[in-house]
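Support request, please re-run this one:
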Amino acid sequence: MTSEAAAIAELPGGPLPYTLRRSSRARVLRVVIHPDRGVVVTVPARTVRPEHERRANAFLAEREPWLRKHLGHQAAIARRIAARGGARDGGSVPFRGRLHRVRVVPAVSGIRRSDVVAFDDELVIHRVAADRRSDGAILEAWLRAEARRTIEATVVEHGQALRVDPKALTLRDPRTRWGSASRTGRLSFSWRLILAPPEALETVVCHELAHLRVFGHGPAFWALVASRRPDHRVWRRWLHDHSIELHRALLVA
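Re-run finished. Output below.
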């Protein structure tokens, strides 16, 4: 069971709004800075009210410099992404690790469905007049298809080398994980990997394929990942550092 409530911590640097979560799964008090929701404090459900809010406020006060620093960093990233304009005519979005200008043009007469054509530095949306979807929705649908095609090809390539045979592959849009693997051989990936450099996408694919042979993150597992991507640490760090950018890439300012 989980419940949430809006709260405000009165800190030396000024009021700090946050979300207070009470979770039956939580064992200790935990603070995260969510890219969309800001500060989220999770406390064990067994904590007695109003004790949970007092503990949360004290915890935030102890970590105020860290919180202010990271909130400021997130705000700066958000401003930089908003300045790109997002998925609209004249905006810019990342594709395969490079920014591409978005251009919207009328589709050729007789074409019944909007489509996207990728060039070196442009993504051109050929819009059908009757299509009621937003430019962002058209572009996202195309990006998801590109992600599936690219990820499936990468899974085949590295799956053969690692001698694993995935049973199913799905694309999702998770907030905290780029990929996952089950013991039954099912793989799941974020479609947003198509926005990242190909090396980052390949690293996540190799990571999840390696889990089909070795569950857990011990030396044997990392050796297996490194056998396909010796630079996996570089690209795992890249994804961590650019997570906000990838998740907000298509938002229109």
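The chain has a mean pLDDT of 93. Helices lie at 51-62, 64-84, 135-162, 198-211, 219-228, 232-241, 243-248.
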